[in-house]
Specification:
With 135 residues, the chain is mainly alpha-helical. The protein has one domain (3-131). Helix content is 95%, strand content 0%. It has two helices and no strands. The termini are far apart. 0% of the residues are buried. The mean pLDDT is 86.
Length: 135
Amino acid sequence: MSPGQIAALVAAGAFVLLVILLAIPLIKLGRTLDEATIAIRKAHQNSDPIFSGANTTITHVNAQLERVDGITANARAVTGNVSALTSLFTATLGGPLVKAAALSYGVSKAIRARRKASEAPGKHLRRRTARGGKR
């Protein structure tokens, strides 16, 4: 054997070793892709019940939202009615009640003033005399 043939034999051996070393990660990568394919297939099979459950849940939520919309509309109508009733009450009874309150305040103030005047008769008499009244 010549040295060229030995060098070719060593190069061929190195090439085979390189192919084997590169084949191992490729085989592992192929297994990983197979597992990923199986996992995707299982996820696809299990997603149908999840989606149907989600659809059922969304249907129930929509029904509840329709009820809440009805309740909100009724509350809005009640609020409008209460506002109208308050305006009516203020228009019809508010004025007379304010007048009655003012009258009672004035009467109570006048009574207090009379009581103070009756407790201190000297002051009352001096006022009369200062105005030119009799003593």
